[in-house]
Fold this protein.
Amino acid sequence: MTQSSDATDTIVTFPAGGLRGEARIVLTESRPDGAVIIVDATPFHPVDHTWPDQPGDTGALVSEAGRVLVTDTEMAARSDAGEFAIGAEIPVRRGSEGWSWFVAHRIEATDAPAWLAAGSTVFAEVDAARRAALSRGHTACHLASLALDLAVADLWRKDPGTDALGSPDFEGRANQSSRIHDDGSVDEYRLGKSLRKAGFDAETFAATLLEREERINAQLAVWVASAARSRIEVDGPTIVDRRRWHCDLPEGEAVIQCGGTHVASLAEFSAISVSLDLNDPQMLVMTTTAVPAA
């Protein structure tokens, strides 16, 4: 590992839509699965090691001396005792005290070329088309979850808490995993005994699955037609500062804690739709598909 003496939490510009920026290399590490490069500030969005819903950005690091492709972007951390870890290796949650937090840019080569030494200046360039597709996928995922909560609101016999629009929070109670991809997502919801004990009528839900799907898609069509504004609010400039997604929907402003990237307006969609799969009666799978505006 090579590093400069003043490596601190990485400054990030992706919440404001950043795609390119000058950066100073503060740390490099050779790895058999691809060397990682850490810079002082970056537009790259990394996959989160504790809730890996949105993939990391890809792109390139460029200088007059050369160009390398960034094949993935991950969280990295170093403890005050000197332990360095990347991605799933990180033993603590993001922002835990006693650790410095970074965005790690992974390249194909196991060793970084000499021109990427600590202290060098580069330009970090994100693949803009892929970022846009992932942002559409992430915004569509949030909208689909809110529409799902609305569509099953009548199936609760107890109060499960509320979501960002004040609906009973099925998403918060049942979601087991969420995976964002280009222009869409796949979410899994467990419909087991614990959800039934919490007051959810899973039997009626299963019997009316097609009706619920139609309700969700009708609601999504209304929201897309509203062309509502969408944005990210941040508590600070670093990768560990909290970020929230805001969307000015007709029903009110939805605010969801979220570390990902999003569209600036629902006018960026021509349509969003979902399909519901309950082949396993214990597991609902919701597949969300976004169609970008022409």
Summary: The helical segments are 128-151, 170-174, 193-197, 202-207, 209-226. The longest strand covers residues 269-280. Residues 64 and 232 are 33 Å apart (CA to CA).
